[in-house]
From TrEMBL:
Organism: Aramus guarauna
Superkingdom as given in the UniProt entry: Eukaryota
Protein name, entry field: Alpha-protein kinase 2
Chain's role: Protein kinase that recognizes phosphorylation sites in which the surrounding peptides have an alpha-helical conformation. Regulates cardiac development and cardiomyocyte differentiation by negatively regulating Wnt/beta-catenin signaling.
Family membership noted in the UniProt record: Belongs to the protein kinase superfamily. Alpha-type protein kinase family. ALPK subfamily.
Residue ranges of domain Alpha-type protein kinase in the record: 1-153
EC number: 2.7.11.1
Biased composition (Polar residues): 165-178
Renumbered residue ranges of the record's region Disordered: 156-196
InterPro entries in alphabetical order: a-kinase_dom, Kinase-like_dom_sf
Alphabetized UniProt keyword annotations: Cell membrane, Disulfide bond, Immunoglobulin domain, Kinase, Membrane, Repeat, Serine/threonine-protein kinase, Transferase
GO molecular function: ATP binding; protein serine/threonine kinase activity
Length: 196
């Protein structure tokens, strides 16, 4: 938990260094640090400690990317969180995604990281690779993505889908391929009739 959150925090610091100087970008989301505390006299010898966040707790992105959250799409913090995800995705060539962004205002905690199956630079995340795929398919760029000059994932995703469909169009379809099977090898098909 500490390793994941503090790794995401390091990415957030680099993101802030690139975004804050941009005219009109404003405040940048911050992932708060989390610390591991050893308590040898306690039944549970280890615990995590982090800053208490006071205010309305909002999920700006969810682990699986399926949930539609209007606060994510419509609020400044939500848009900047989505841009942060896009930025990390682009910086790591699609190998890593910070997800499950949640917190109070621009202060975030309890984040997750998804990586490709092999990991990224020796780091393996705590979320499924499917989150990366869903993010790529569902992300909608906003003005902050544009300010950072991030490439549209929609265009990339559509190009990939178009190339795949073009390949399948170039392949002969099953109706144009004649299959010859010796008569002895043919077996009668079983048809199951269903009565409702």
């Amino acid at each position: 938990e500490c390793y994941v959150q503090n790794t995401a925090r390091e990415y957030a610091k680099i993101y802030a260094a690139e975004a804050e100087p941009l005219e009109g970008f404003g405040e940048v989301p911050e992932i708060i640090p989390i610390f591991l505390v050893h308590r040898p006299a306690n039944n549970i010898p280890y615990a995590t400690v982090e800053e208490e966040l006071v205010g309305e707790f909002v999920k700006y992105s969810v682990r699986d990317g399926k949930e539609v959250n209007f606060l994510r799409r419509d609020s400044e913090a939500g848009q900047k969180c989505c841009t942060f995800q896009h930025w990390v995705y682009e910086k790591t060539n699609g190998s890593l995604l910070v997800t499950d962004l949640q917190g109070v205002g621009m202060k975030l905690t309890d984040v997750g990281i998804a990586t490709l199956a092999k990991g990224y630079k020796g780091f393996k995340g705590n979320c499924s690779i499917s989150f990366i795929e869903q993010f790529r398919a569902l992300h909608q760029c906003n003005k902050y993505c544009e300010m950072l000059g991030l490439n549209s994932l929609r265009t990339t995703h559509q190009k990939q889908r178009k190339a795949t469909s073009m390949k399948s169009k170039n392949l002969p379809n099953s109706s144009t391929i004649k299959k010859t099977v010796p008569k002895k090898a043919r077996e009668p098909r079983d048809f199951i009739s269903s009565q409702h």
